[in-house]
Design goal:
CATH topology of the largest domain: FAD/NAD(P)-binding domain
Strand content: 15-25%
CATH class of the largest domain: Alpha Beta
Distance between the termini: 52 Å
Number of helices: 16
Helix content: 25-40%
Structural class: alpha/beta
Amino acid sequence: MNNKKQVIIIGAGPAGITAGYELAKEQDYEVKVFEQDSQIGGISKTINYKGNLIDTGIHRFFSKDDTIMDWWANILPVQTKPALDDILLERKLNLKTNDKISDPQTMDRVMLIRNRVSRIFYLKKFFDYPISLSFQTFANMGLWRTVKAGFGYFASIIHKRKETSLENFYINRFGKPLYRMFFENYTEKVWGVHPSKLGADWGSQRVKGVSVTKIIVDVITKPFKSKSSKNIETSLIESFVYPKLGAGQIWEEAAKEIVANGSTVELNNRIKQINVKNNKVISVITEDNGEDKTVECDLLLSSMPIKDLILAMNGIEIPNDVREAALNLPYREFMSVGLFVKKLLLENKTDIKTINNIVPDSWIYIQESNVKLGRLQVFNNWSPYAMKHFQDEVLIGCEYFCDEGDELWNMTDEDFIQLAIDELVKIKIINREDVTDAVRIKIKKAYPAYHGSYYDLPKVIDFLNSVENLYCIGRNGQHRYNNMDHSMLTGIEAVNHILGKTADKQSVWNVNTEKEYHETKK
């Protein structure tokens, strides 16, 4: 007989795979990970389009938590020595690359060290992000905007606003003119709601340590700082690691380890019902290729959206106010166009060497108000190994944010791709005739939003915590706009509580509530 405790994990994204990886190593537990998609990785998966590996939502692999950095390195070692393909790449392109790996036998199982460059595209010019105090910043802004920004910042020092909204949160740290130039429009694109109507909670989780004051201090103290990641704000990091074959590679490799340890990862399995008895989950009903099956369990870890979790629960009385709050939690959908072009019109005016001298940016925030486009990813700068023809073309990801069922979401692939092309031409980033191919990517509930019934979330959390063997993990599992590392930590904290390493189940919800740390993704 199998006396192991049966663990069901809903979702094979970063949180679910991390928790599954950790628990599958334990002799007393058997893990079953159920994923409704056909691929592992959640919002961090990588799709294969005609031999090109495209991330659905690109992610920097960086954390101030050593547990996470060590976890990643254990799955995919960080490069150390030159390998044959790197040497050939250097010779062919006359470019000194830092893509070094230790063992040619495992040359694809590696994390590359990447330069971190993120900038804002505004007034058809580049601005550093976070905003720097460079001569170029002031030159791009012009004298009048610079003067206004200076007075606005000093006004924000003298008069602090109550942080009742994300707008006030930004103004307190940058002043109103800089907020309007670099945050207001982009934030509304992402959330579909003006920052004055969004909770400051989002800022406290995503932009904790960034402000004009912090930037000034960083400029002054940088020469004297240790290079340890713990001594710098995450938004000010200059390098990070990244899987050679795309972000999804790390979750796929970890999933292989889960299976190797005797557990399972089952794709195309949608959770239809969660059966609860005496405040404990006893089983789930999954839909596997059109057929329902009941799977019993001793523990349930859920990274599915809270809204869907509440809808699926059966056998427990859910208070009306809890149900109402959960069902009305707001989300924002994500869509991207992977666009292949012969070249960009943007010039590389930096001193950073790149392949074919394209701009060195990891991603570019589009602050122009006359387009719906929110952000650009430049895939060539993440891993040239993930592209079939990285020397001859540029692959960019055009990111849009919308609501399921709205005009953008309902556009045909052809029309949406044409919109992306039209907007890039409009702001002079590409020539239309340079487009060679394109693919559209859609992700539901990519961003838990901070307005509406979000403010009733505490009562939902209290109810979910009353189910003794249920753990809510991950971005959607907790309705928090967490980074990848924090999503992973919620999975690790759940496992720690299961194994008796922590006494309080609340520790799972406490991840990323500290004020010291978080990356800015804008």
